[in-house]
Amino acid sequence: MRGLEEEFIPSTPGKFKDKTYYSGNRQFHRCFASTSTMFLWALFLLALTASYLSFQSFINSGTRYLSSTWGSLHWEKQVRDSAQIHRVNGMSVLVTGAAGFVGSHVSIALKKRGDGVVGIDNFNNYYDPSLKKARKNLLNLQNVYLIEGDINDVHLISKLFDIVAFTHVMHLAAQAGVRYAMENPKSYVHSNIAGLVTLLEACKNANPQPAIVWASSSSVYGLNEKVPFSESDRTDQPASLYAATKKAGEEITHTYNHIYGLSITGLRFFTVYGPWGRPDMAYFSFTRNILQGKSITIYRGKNRVDLARDFTYIDDIVKGCVGSLDTAGKSTGSGGKKRAPAMFRIFNLGNTSPVTVPMMVAMLEKHLKVKAKKHVLDMPGNGDVPFTHANISLAQKELGYKPTTNLQTGLGKFVRWYLSYYGYSQEKSMKE
Ligand SMILES: O=C(O)[C@H]1O[C@H](OP(=O)(O)OP(=O)(O)OC[C@H]2O[C@@H](n3ccc(=O)[nH]c3=O)[C@H](O)[C@@H]2O)[C@H](O)[C@@H](O)[C@H]1O
After folding, report:
1. Among 8, 18, 27, 318, which is 20 to 30 Å from 150 by CA?
2. Ligand 1 atom closest to Cα of 176?
3. What angle (nearest 5°) sits at the alpha carbon of residue 120, between those of residues 115 and 125?
4. At what angle do helices 282-291 and 357-368 cross, to 10 degrees?
5. What is the DSSP string of 168-233?
6. How open is the CA angle 267-208-112, to the nearest 5 degrees?
7. Which residue of 299, 351, 379, 382 sits with most ligand 1 atoms within 8 Å of its CB, as the best mutation to test the pocket?
8. Which residues, other chains included, contact 403 with Cβ-Cβ below 8 Å and sequence gap of 6+?
9. How far is residue 241's CA from residue 195's CA, in Å, rounded to a whole number?
10. Residue 283 burial by Cβ neighbours in a 10 Å radius (0-12, 13-18, 19+)
11. Atom of ligand 1 nearest to the CA of 243
12. How far is CA 428 from CA 292, 418, 420, in A?
């Protein structure tokens, strides 16, 4: 009887011709050979995959570093560099709406004095985005990094707080404009309510929590007839959806202050104007139309009373914003929990000297040296209020706020900027 070994391994290979054995052996060899080949192939494929993956990760890290899209290493570096503080006791500020009128001015003022600034703006087309791009170029010159993104983007906002321990948030991103709310109500809810809440959630979760200064509006005084408007006056009669969303913002921020210990300062801006302003505002569109020889519509209130605004020059508003950041108390929460009561403030930032709309037009005519073609119309029921007038004593006391530019001077500066930016010609004005 052949042993097991004999059965499979011939004593003299090639001599033994047993068919059964031979074919079994061949099968064994085939089987052995194919297993080892497969093993080798598997090893080879494994090595190939490993080297491919490491090459891919090398490529990825290179691309991540070089790419400027958000989340890339290069992007993170730009954000960190821009947030770097260059003065003693400086702050690191996230400015939302930084390509906007007030946002761009505040960002530059902060950066110039050595604070760290990172801007974010969604560059929407409520008015010509090319003006926003031009403001972005100004910010670039001052080394302010401006991210193109929406405050509703939860991932982007929380990523920003992961990268930088912002000490302050200057929240100026909003859907502005009183009358446009009738055309596009949802955009007010999207930016002024949903966007605000997204931002506050990120601030609440941040560690450390930043102090927040944000733009409310004089429009919250609505149909109030008591003048001048004081912060303690009633604000429960908004005349437009814009005003209602700003008032809602005041209530929402109060909630986050109360529950999570966020330090909040709300600023009620009064019809801000000046160089690099918003083309949708009356002083701006009137200038364009006067230069183009087109007529302008001047609204008139009940009983033929002229409408009036407490027009406030941009540099004064910037001082109020910076003063608010400088005096803001720290937020007290951490890990989403309030540790102690935090500061909650609301200030009027106005000029304290209202001017009627026809008077404003007369000033523009003087600066432009062109007569306006005026078309006077009774104020339509579109959300407008007949007048605004700020009492600024609280801001004076707490922030040292003191407006220094009257409308005549401020419009002169605006017109000089307008002409240098757009020129006199109609062709250039079409850029708006
Ligand atoms: O303080 C604010 O919180 C708000 O200020 C600004 O709103 P308003 O004060 O309404 O400014 P603006 O539109 O320039 O109209 C000025 C005057 O011109 C009158 N007006 C306007 C247009 C027109 O064609 N004719 C006209 O007579 C008009 O009836 C009004 O009497 C911001 O836009 C707003 O976003 C918000 O920040």
Report:
1. 318
2. 35
3. 140
4. 40
5. EEEE------SGGGGT-HHHHIIIIIIIHHHHHHHHHHSSSPPEEEEEEEGGGGTT--SSSB-TTS
6. 55
7. 299
8. 312, 313, 316, 350, 351, 352, 392
9. 16
10. buried
11. 3
12. 10, 11, 11
Q: Between β-strands 211-217 and 264-269, what pairing exists: parallel, antiparallel or unpaired?
A: parallel
Of 127, 145, 221, 242, which is the active-site residue?
242
CA of 283 to the centre of ligand 1 (A): 9
Structure tokens at 140: 């670039």
Q: Is the dihedral of CA 406, 314, 356, 297 positive or negative?
A: positive
Cα 195 from chain centroid (whole Å):
9
Indicate which atom in ligand 1 lies nearest the CA of residue 177: 35
**pTM score, whole prediction:** 0.86
Question: Angle at Cα 138 formed by Cα 136 and Cα 144, nearest 5°?
Answer: 70
In tens digits, the chain (432 residues) has pLDDT values of 333 333 333 333 333 333 333 344 444 455 445 666 666 776 777 777 666 655 555 555 555 555 678 889 999 999 999 999 999 999 999 999 999 999 999 999 999 999 999 999 999 999 999 999 999 999 999 999 999 999 999 999 999 999 999 999 999 999 999 999 999 999 999 999 999 999 999 999 999 999 999 999 999 999 999 999 999 999 999 999 999 999 999 999 999 999 999 999 999 999 999 999 999 999 999 999 999 999 999 999 999 999 999 999 999 999 999 999 999 999 999 878 899 999 999 999 999 999 999 999 999 999 999 999 999 999 988 889 999 999 999 999 999 999 999 999 999 999 999 999 999 764 444 444
Token pair 């220094």 in the structure block, residue: 404
b/e code 147-172 from CB counts within 10 Å (16+ = b) = bebbbbbeebbebbbeebebbbbbbb
Q: How many residues does the chain have?
A: 432
164, 172, 269, 258: which is closest to 213 by C-alpha? 172
Is beta strand 344-349 parallel, antiparallel or unpaired with respect to 295-300? Answer: unpaired
Q: Is-contact 329 344, C-beta < 8 A?
A: no
Q: Is 319 exposed, middle or buried (0-12, 13-18, 19+ CB in 10 A)?
A: buried
